[in-house]
Amino acid sequence: MCDYTSPRRDTMRSHVEAMHIITDGFECSICGKTYKTRNSLKTHKYERISETPSCTL
Question: What is the pTM of this model?
Fold first, then answer.
């Protein structure tokens, strides 16, 4: 039995997803990388979107 506790529902969901659910992972539709948790994929996508190309001229 797991001793983890959390006052926040989203934190508990992340814990359960990362530690107790067997999954093939969550794949990025842009680059194909796979992440263990949905939250990791969400962070990855945010970071990719934040990468703004700039003109070098």
Answer: 0.56
